[in-house]
């Protein structure tokens, strides 16, 4: 019989909060984390704004200075969010469980981009002998999972998804299935990203995918709004602690929600242009896996990136997947506040779904002043909404046509 899987801990590192309480308060206040980029010269960039994490020092979070220097920024974010999540779950890997039954599955859409930039410059300026021996192990996307395992002592399944903006949700969904089939009792899972760098910004600017509303940073990310002109890049990490229900109950853990469904699909269509049919199939699979009717869904945390094409495509997909219920379900895009965290987005947004179920309040889509007529669903504009959310769904869609959806439910023993 398949194991039931529950969420017992959560941790975040975002531009609008480094801990759950601050993060949730920011969401309820409709606070934007977007500002002018200050970490490098952006004067020649079409986009000069991002949801950057300011004043981050890994030593403030008990990461040894020497060890921190051997971690790319995305790994530092992942480690901090994971330790926060474990603390929130009141779980010590080596004391409270069998370490061989604890796994780590933390992905990144791009990985150590800033490390690559730094070391490539050293190669060009000083030659190959000056490149750091830690260059490769700092850069590769699986090193977040590797470092978390080494720091916590988790010896169970250890892997990494790299599926662009679907990464975080794939990581959580795959972890859910691992526990469900008995491969692990506990999974530390989610995503991390740190690509607010010269190359990262230049690449997305070249794609013309990002907002150029540089004079109004806080209003730049505006999903489903007529005046949206692209996404705003964010950075950070979102981590969940998943446990089998039996394991969680045995140790008396507090439970935020139960994971009940996971769907994934491929568009087989285009590198960057989404196909609503692919997203629809993904949602339908998640709903089927959850064993529920579409009409039971109370809230959808949308992928909602604030791109003209993407928001319309997701709106169409939701209508295809949910039918008439699409007009009754509450949908919001919290990227309007956090920015788009790429591979970390699904992790952060799963945390939001867990908090929404726990607190009975749906976070808004801010900056939704003039709703696009083609985006005609209920996007909870600008103000949080009290609601008894029993079932929440989170969507993540990535370049390459990678789609992932998870379904969370209020826990009932």
Automatic annotation (TrEMBL):
Active-site annotation: 165 (for beta-ketoacyl synthase activity)
Gene Ontology MF annotations: 3-oxoacyl-[acyl-carrier-protein] synthase activity
Pathway: Lipid metabolism; fatty acid biosynthesis
GO terms classed as biological process: fatty acid biosynthetic process
SMART domains (UniProt xref): PKS_KS
Function text: Involved in the type II fatty acid elongation cycle. Catalyzes the elongation of a wide range of acyl-ACP by the addition of two carbons from malonyl-ACP to an acyl acceptor. Can efficiently catalyze the conversion of palmitoleoyl-ACP (cis-hexadec-9-enoyl-ACP) to cis-vaccenoyl-ACP (cis-octadec-11-enoyl-ACP), an essential step in the thermal regulation of fatty acid composition.
Name this polypeptide is given: 3-oxoacyl-[acyl-carrier-protein] synthase 2
Organism encoding this protein: Paenibacillus contaminans
């Amino acid at each position: 019989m398949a194991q039931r899987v529950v969420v017992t801990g959560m941790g975040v590192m975002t531009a609008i909060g480094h801990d759950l309480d601050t993060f949730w308060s920011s969401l309820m206040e409709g606070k934007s984390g977007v500002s002018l980029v200050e970490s490098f010269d952006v004067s020649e960039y079409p986009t000069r704004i991002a949801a950057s994490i300011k004043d981050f020092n890994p030593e403030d979070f008990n990461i040894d200075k020497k060890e921190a220097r051997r971690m790319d920024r995305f790994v530092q974010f992942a480690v901090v969010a994971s330790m926060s999540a474990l603390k929130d779950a009141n779980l010590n890997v080596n004391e409270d469980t069998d370490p061989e039954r604890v796994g780590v599955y933390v992905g990144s859409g791009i990985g150590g981009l800033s490390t690559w930039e730094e070391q490539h410059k050293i190669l060009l300026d000083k030659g190959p002998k000056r490149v750091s021996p830690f260059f490769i192990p700092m850069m590769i996307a699986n090193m977040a999972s590797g470092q978390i395992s080494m720091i916590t002592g988790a010896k169970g399944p250890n892997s990494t998804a790299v599926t662009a903006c679907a990464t975080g949700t794939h990581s959580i969904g795959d972890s859910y299935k691992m526990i469900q089939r008995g491969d692990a009792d506990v999974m530390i899972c989610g995503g991390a990203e740190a690509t607010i760098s010269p190359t990262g910004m230049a690449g997305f600017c070249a794609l013309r995918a990002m907002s150029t509303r540089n004079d109004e940073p806080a209003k730049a990310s505006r999903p489903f709004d007529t005046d949206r002109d692209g996404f705003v890049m964010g950075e950070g990490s979102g981590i969940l602690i998943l446990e089998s229900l039996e394991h969680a109950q045995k140790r008396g853990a507090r439970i935020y929600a139960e994971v009940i469904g996971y769907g994934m699909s491929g568009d087989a269509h285009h590198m960057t242009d989404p196909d609503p049919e692919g997203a629809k199939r993904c949602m339908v699979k998640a709903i089927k896996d959850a064993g529920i009717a579409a009409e039971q869904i109370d809230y959808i945390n949308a992928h909602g990136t604030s791109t003209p094409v993407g928001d319309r495509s997701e709106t169409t997909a939701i209508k295809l997947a949910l039918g008439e219920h699409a007009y009754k379900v509450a949908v919001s895009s919290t990227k309007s506040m956090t920015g788009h965290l790429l591979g970390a987005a699904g992790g952060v947004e799963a945390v939001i779904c867990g908090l929404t179920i726990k607190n009975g309040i749906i976070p808004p889509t801010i900056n939704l002043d003039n709703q696009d007529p083609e985006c005609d669903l209920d996007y909870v504009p600008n103000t949080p909404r009290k609601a008894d959310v029993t079932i929440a769904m989170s969507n993540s869609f990535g370049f390459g046509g990678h789609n992932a959806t998870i379904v969370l439910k209020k826990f009932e023993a």
